[in-house]
Amino acid sequence: MAKNTDLHETRQTVTYTGVAGWIDRRLPVLTGFRAEYITYRMPANLNWLWNFGAILTVVLMVMLATGLFLAIHYTPSAADAFASVEAIDRQVPSGWLLRSIHMTGASLFMAALYIHLFRGLYYGSYKQPRELLWITGLVLLCMVMLTAFAGYVLPWGQMSYWGADVVGKAVGAVPGIGGWLEHFLQGGDAPGDVSLHRLFILHFFMAFAVLGVVVVHVAVLHVAGSGNPKGIEPPAATVPFHPYYSAKDAAGLVLFITVFAVLVFFFPAIVAEPENYRPANPMHTPADIEPEWYFLPFYGILQSVPSKFGGLVVSVGAIGLLFLAPWLDTSPVRSARYRPVYRLGIVGLVVAFVTLGLVGRHHAEGIWMIVGRIATLVYYGHFLLVMPWSTRRERTLPAGVEGTP
Amino acid sequence: MSRLHGLAAALAVLGGVSGVRAEVPTTRAPTPAHVWSFDGPMGRFDMASVQRGYAVYNQVCSACHGMAAVTYGDLAGIGLNEAQVRQIAASHKVPGPLDDDGHPTRRPATPNDHLLSPFPNPQAAMRANSGVVPPDQSRLAMVFPGGPSRIYALLTSYGPAPAGMTIAPGHAYNPYFDGRQTAMPQPLRDHQVTYADGTDATLAREAEDVTNFLAWAAWPHLAERHRIGARIVLYLVFLFVLTILLKRKVWSHVH
Questions:
Q1: Tens digits of per-residue pLDDT, A146-193?
Q2: Active-site entry in A84, A195, A226, A315
């Protein structure tokens, strides 16, 4: 590891003068920014999977910006919602572009979130001392899922309506209070004007609430610092965030935005469900009610379990288990690189997750029901069996790897 | 008559069992592939055809089908100028304000008005169309299973029903509809419309033109999207090369 001039330069203390200095002495925003985003020490060995935090931040900003303009033209009522979205697509100047970016952005935000989450699981980013970082991240996952669901209902097309109906019925499956809760959340016996108005407020409010929790997530990150692929801490070598990771994040971000643009401009149909371009019709159930791809694995679990309430518990539990990861896996070795058993568990987890998505797409019918149950067991098995069991076996780094795990 | 048909159908079933005669199929025929200029990631519309298609829509389809999401002003997107759009709008009468006696009035449409729907409500539409509401055509090319190719196929495939098939009252035989019959009477024939540009209005020409128009209505920004997209993606690829070079330069000291 070469100690270079850049590295020494950025370590120097900078004194701000003039207006900047006047402000910084009263509210040290410039010093703070410099400490957290310029001289901030990062492990030198991060791979490209560490780009997704920055990517998610930028996609969130894009979603907030496009969403704000869409909200200006949107009417949250059962009678006018569909027509107002059509007007955005057709009559509002560049409305089609804003909406296409917002729709594609939702899918890519969830995709980046899943990759970010996988990174955390694979390299043990949830381990002590980063438990709170992990938990704030999972809180964000739940908030983003809720926001995505609420947002999908807003155009009030067939899938919007029947998606909301399925979720209402799932809530209704809670024993005892289910019926009351379903009625309360929907503001009626079926999705309607009241539900749409509430979901619009929820979607708008949650978007900014997510921003708030992101600030907390980043603040917690900067206390413990980034983990690294080897999981050896402190890392053997560090570099300042700028220019090293600002340059690397920029490249990753531009690549991600390129994929984003290709989807928006050339393949928008990949993320847009045609059925949702038919106005909501409570009298006509579509042949195939299917959630967006990012909910399919959980939909797969919901449908694989024979009891309705059981399905709800097991599918919500699949996210709940993630919260327990720091206490289910207490092995001092962080990275799956040095944990063959745990690594196998992760492979099983990813295969099960993708398989459950396919099960959801096939409505757990026939052989898919069996496949869905096995995949659910493999998913749960990673947390409840592999994590505790491998903790006892995999406690030391393999010979030849130096450092404190 | 229908009893005779029933008998024929029963015989056909028996015949099918004994291998003498095949059953009359009732599931819809698979859609033949059709090449469209708007297909693919760089597709664009044949605007002359889309404009002729609007004439077909205006003179034929709009008698039964609405296109509620589209305004007369949107027709600028098929290559009409402002004067043409105003002229087309003004030739349609839409509900106006109440007069001094409280009676409803009608006024010429403006470019901000939505295309006039033929029926005031679904009940009236059902009553006039053998109990079936003609679907709105704003997004029909997108939401119709089989898409534009199936629309073209069914517009050109009306004909006499095969022997042994029962057609419901008010319905017509067409292999590309579910059940191989439809409540929509044959809408297009040779020279059903007269084209302003002198194109010979054959059935195939009319069907292709109106399908192009319906596809434009379903994806009105397709051409613009592809054009802007090509520039943006080219720019991003160039930017990516620059950022990768920058990243390599910055990191060249490390390792």
A1: 999 999 999 999 999 999 999 999 999 999 999 999 998 899 999 999
A2: A226
Query: Per residue in A249-285, pLDDT tens?
Result: 999 999 999 999 999 999 999 988 999 999 999 999 9
A292 in active site? yes
Least confident span in A5-14, A99-108, A343-352, B69-78: A5-14
The pLDDT value recorded for residue B51 is: 97
Rounded CA separation A54/A104 (Å): 18
Token pair, residue B140, equals 């029909």
The helix/strand/coil state of A229 is: coil
Q: Is A267 on the interface with B (CB under 8 A)?
A: yes
Note the pLDDT tens digit of each residue in A106-142.
Answer: 999 999 999 999 999 999 999 999 999 999 999 999 9
Of A130, A103, A116, A100, nearest to A55 by C-alpha is A116
Q: Give yes or no: A102 in active site.
A: no
Largest CA distance in chain A: 73
Which CATH code is given to the segment(s) A49-289? 1.20.810.10
Q: Are strands B181-182 and B106-108 parallel, antiparallel or unpaired?
A: unpaired
- The Cα–Cα gap between A207 and A63 comes to 8
Answer whether residue A351 shows pLDDT above 90. yes
Q: Does A249 qualify as catalytic in the annotation?
A: yes
CB proximity A257 to B under 8 Å: yes
Which tokens in the block code for residue B44? 């664009």
Query: Using a CB-CB distance cutoff of 8 angstroms, which residues of chain B are in contact with residue A4?
Result: 253-254
- Report whether the peptide linkage leading into residue A286 is cis, meaning its omega lies within 30 degrees of zero: no
Task: Among A4, A91, A255, select the one facing B71 at the smallest CB separation.
Answer: A91
Q: Which residues of A touch B70 (CB under 8 A)?
A: 90
**ipTM score of the complex?**
0.90
Q: What is the rounded distance in angstroms from the CA atom of residue B218 to the CA atom of residue A274?
A: 10
Residue A222 annotated in active site:
yes
Average pLDDT, chain A: 93
Residues sharing a CB contact under 8 Å with residue B37, sequence separation 6 or more, in sequence order: B43, B44, B45, B46, B212
A90:B139 CB<8 A? no
Q: CB–CB of B255 and A1 under 8 A?
A: yes
User: Could you tell me the residue ranges of all domains in chain A?
Assistant: 1-39, 49-289, 293-405
In one-letter notation, the amino acid at residue A333 is V
Whole-structure pTM value: 0.91
| Helix (H/G/I), strand (E/B), else coil: B114 | strand
